[in-house]
Amino acid sequence: MPPSESTGPRRAALAIGRPLASADFQPMQSWRGCGDGRISQKPTPKDLDDLRRCLLLIGHMPEWRPRIDEMAAASPQWNQIAHAWSDIEAAYDAEAPNYDNPAPRAAVLLSAVIARGDAIENRGAAQG
């Protein structure tokens, strides 16, 4: 049975504004980068556009909000993002409540937490 607009991949695709790449939608895998549903080598939000898609997706599927903590296991970058999620989201909401304007503070926060995750990953690779 195909998904309705209120469930699964269709609902997620509506949230991010484009179709997902796979009919085999796996919520915590396909939305990891909050991009277009494709899994990449580093599926983390990299900029405010990615963050905006994440926030829109969670706005349409609020039952996923508590699962952000699960994303901490996905990568060192997601670990840092998950722990700072509420601060990043609050900054974006304060600067651009409709997610349609620049949000420099949110961008700085996101960049900083990703950089911390990159540093952790690089230390692990150097030790490995």
Q: Indicate how many domains the architecture comprises.
A: 1
Q: What is the overall number of helices?
A: 5
Radius of gyration, taken over Cα atoms and rounded to an integer in Å: 15 Å
Q: Give the helix proportion (percent range).
A: 40-55%
Q: Tell me how many strands there are.
A: 0
Q: SSE order in H/E notation? A: HHHHH
**How much is the average pLDDT?**
75
Gross geometry: globular
Q: In whole angstroms, how far apart are the ends?
A: 46 Å
How would you characterize the largest beta sheet?
Answer: none
Describe the oligomeric state of these chains in a short phrase: single chain
Strand content: under 5%
- Class inferred from helices and paired strands: mainly alpha
Task: Pick out the low-confidence regions.
Answer: 1-5, 19-31, 36-40
Characterize the structure shown.
There is one protein chain. By secondary structure, the chain is mainly α. The chain has one domain (8-127). 55% of the residues lie in helices and 0% in strands. It has helices at 8-16, 27-30, 48-60, 76-95, 104-127. α1 packs across α3 (48-60) and α4 (76-95) runs antiparallel to α5 (104-127). Mean pLDDT is 75; it is low at 1-5, 19-31 and 36-40.
